[in-house]
Design brief:
4 strands, 112 residues, Glutaredoxin, alpha+beta, 3 helices, 2 domains, globular
Length: 112
């Protein structure tokens, strides 16, 4: 089972860190069983939250957690309709290529 480490509820939120909330949302979307626990900076791979422990492997950073989940469940967390519409307006293709209105190459808008 995956364990998600964060700071715990604070300021009326499930977790004070938006990055822990992102990681928790990804875990919920993946439908993998997980539990939450309070973090320990000495155990955190990058010295910050969020981080997960999956079968003894520690992974820090919400983007690395996303990549791990995509590899683990073989599911791509696709951008939502608003993000896809913004890509279309800017002329950015799904592969991340495209030109801006000024003719400069745009960086990919992918979260990876």
């Amino acid at each position: 089972m995956i364990t998600l480490y964060g700071s715990g509820p604070n300021f009326g939120l499930p977790d004070a860190s938006p990055f822990v909330t992102k990681a928790e949302t990804l875990l919920r979307m993946s439908k993998l069983p997980f539990e939450k626990a309070l973090m320990s900076f000495s155990k955190a791979p990058k010295g910050k939250i969020p981080y997960i422990e999956d079968d003894g492997q520690l992974l820090g950073d919400s983007t690395l957690i996303r990549w791990h989940l995509e590899k683990e469940i073989r599911h791509r967390f696709r951008p939502g309709p608003h993000r896809r519409a913004a890509r279309h307006r800017l002329g950015v293709r799904e592969d991340g290529g495209g030109q801006s209105l000024l003719g400069q190459r745009l960086l990919p808008l992918d979260d990876r």
